[in-house]
Every structure is written in structure tokens, then in C-alpha cells.
Automatic annotation (TrEMBL):
The lineage of its organism: Bacteria, Pseudomonadati, Pseudomonadota, Alphaproteobacteria, Acetobacterales. This is Prephenate dehydrogenase/arogenate dehydrogenase family protein. It comes from Bombella apis. PANTHER family: PREPHENATE DEHYDROGENASE, PREPHENATE DEHYDROGENASE [NADP(+)]. It comes from the Bacteria. Residues 8-296 form the Prephenate/arogenate dehydrogenase domain.
Length: 296
């Protein structure tokens, strides 16, 4: 017997890469929600969502969508989550769930918990999946398949709501784990935010080279540089918000990286082949670990 839908009506605010992937998954598999609504403030995004038939209802009214829903997931830039949550929470039904997919928690948990009406739960989650593309066309139903989704429910969240959202993400194909806000931000600073900072900076450096050298760098780019450019193609607004929101943790992580990079530079300067080789071997072990964990 097929699983019954988890929700009667699910609203996705922001049908970009993550949001449209959830909607496509729901369309493809069925057991997420009986009815789908997507909402956004951008007319062009709404028009494209209609053209792609991402939801049963496409609307510019975030509050009306929230009022009709058993669950609302905010798939919007980190800097927009607080004001949008504050706007829609007074309209949400008793017994409903608010979630978001922010990649920085910071103080979002306590801030939004303080706004919750009676009998509305807040269960944020961060799917550790994505590409450099954005917008309604970027999503695909298998984006979350066998990827981790980190649930970060605030203290005091009803266990039933946590279980429901954990089941939701598992039905999206994800592996799930619950962690704290602070630990989440430390992990993401290392595995996501620092790599993006480095990629943006390397590409910015390449862009500032002399015209002839810049042209040849782009012409003869090898796979290593191309990998950096793929990451650097990510959405500027989203990553600006992430860097500023997770500033303290990101800077501490960068300082750790800076020290390690300096040690590698010194090993190269001193011709210390043993130290160079050992650091390269460590990097290979990290890659091998990702492959064994099916995250490569």
C-alpha cells in the first residue's frame, strides 16, 4: 500500500534550486503532499513556475499561501528568512509546521521561535545538496538522493513535528541527522562556506590579471581551475548573506586554513619534500573518505 501524503497542503516559498527540486520530487513521488502551492515576490519567477507546472497553485501572496497550508518551507536567501517568517507566522494554521533550508543558523532558531504562534512548530533543515545554478529551471527531483539533510530544531520543538520533517526529507531521498545550530555552522563553514570564499577569490584574482594573461588562463584552464569556476558561478546574493551571517565562524575557519596554507608554502619554499607529500596524502584521504561515504 502506498504511503499517504505527509501533508494535505504544502507551500514552498521560493521555487529556486532547492524549492523547485522539492516540488518536482513531490510531483514525481506523490507521498509528500496532496496539494502543492508555491509563492514568490518576483513576477518572472512566478511565471516560470506556472510554465513548468511546479505546483497546483502559484501565487504572489505569501500570507494567503501560508494560511492554506499544513507546512511552509522557506527556500529563500538567509537574509530574507526572518522578515518573511515574521510576515507569514500570524497567518499559519494551528498544528502547522514552518521550516526553512538556510545554510547558516546563527540565531535563527531562537529568533523565529520567539515569533511562533501557539501550536505552530518550527523545524528548520539544511539539505547538503546543490549546484551552481539557481531559479525554477535549476531544480530536479533527485537532487537530495542519498545526500545528508541536517535538521536543527530549536529546543522545545514537539517531537512529532521533528519526526514529520525527518520523514519528509527521507521521502525526498535524503539521509537525515539532528544537530545543534552552533555545530551546524561550524561544519558548513568548513565544507561549504570556506570553499566558496576561496573559489570566488581565485576567480576574482584571475579576472584582475593583465588582458593577455587573463585570456590565456581562460583558454587553457585545466580541470582544477574549472572546478573553482563552477563553484564561483553560484548566486551572489545568497552567498553574500551566508558570508555575513556566518561571519565569525567563517573567519575562524579561514584563519585555521590560512595557518595550514602558510605551512605548505613554507614547505615548498624550503624544499621539504616529505612535508609536501604528507599534506597531499592527507588531501587524498579526505577525498577517499567522501567516496566511501557516497558523498563524492
Amino acid at each position: 500500500m502506498a504511503d499517504a501524503p505527509l501533508f494535505d497542503t504544502l507551500t514552498i516559498i521560493g521555487p529556486g534550486l532547492i524549492g523547485s527540486s522539492i516540488l518536482r520530487r513531490a510531483r514525481q513521488t506523490g507521498p509528500l503532499a496532496r496539494r502543492l502551492i508555491t509563492a514568490d515576490s518576483a513576477p518572472a519567477v512566478l511565471q516560470r513556475a506556472r510554465e513548468l507546472d511546479l505546483a497546483d497553485e502559484v501565487t504572489a501572496s505569501l500570507t494567503e499561501a501560508a494560511a492554506k497550508s499544513d507546512a511552509v518551507i522557506l527556500c529563500i536567501p538567509t537574509g530574507a528568512i526572518r522578515p518573511v517568517a515574521a510576515a507569514i507566522l500570524p497567518h499559519m494554521r494551528p498544528g502547522s509546521i514552518l521550516s526553512d533550508v538556510a545554510s547558516v543558523r546563527s540565531t535563527l532558531g531562537p529568533d523565529i521561535s520567539a515569533l511562533l504562534p501557539e501550536d505552530v512548530s518550527y523545524v528548520p533543515a539544511h539539505p547538503m545538496a546543490g549546484t551552481e545554478y539557481s531559479g525554477p529551471d535549476a531544480g530536479f527531483a533527485t537532487l537530495f538522493e542519498n545526500r545528508w539533510t541536517l535538521l536543527v530544531p530549536p529546543a522545545g520543538t514537539p517531537s512529532e513535528a521533528i519526526t514529520t520533517m525527518e520523514t519528509f526529507w527521507q521521502r525526498c531521498g535524503a539521509r537525515t541527522r539532528q544537530i545543534t545550530d552552533q555545530y551546524h555552522d561550524q561544519i558548513c563553514a568548513m565544507v561549504s562556506h570556506l570553499p566558496h570564499l576561496l573559489a570566488f577569490t581565485i576567480c576574482d584574482t584571475a579576472d584582475r590579471l593583465s588582458a593577455d594573461l587573463r585570456a590565456d588562463v581562460l583558454e587553457y584552464a585545466a580541470s582544477g581551475f574549472r572546478d573553482f569556476t563552477r563553484i564561483a558561478a553560484s548566486d551572489p546574493t545568497m552567498w553574500r548573506d551566508i558570508f555575513l551571517t556566518n561571519r565569525d565562524v567563517l573567519l575562524a575557519t579561514f584563519e585555521r586554513f590560512e595557518k595550514d596554507a602558510h605551512l605548505m608554502v613554507e614547505a615548498i619554499r624550503n624544499g621539504d619534500s616529505e612535508a609536501i607529500t604528507e599534506r597531499i596524502r592527507r588531501g587524498r584521504r579526505i577525498r577517499q573518505g567522501l567516496i566511501e561515504n557516497k558523498q563524492a
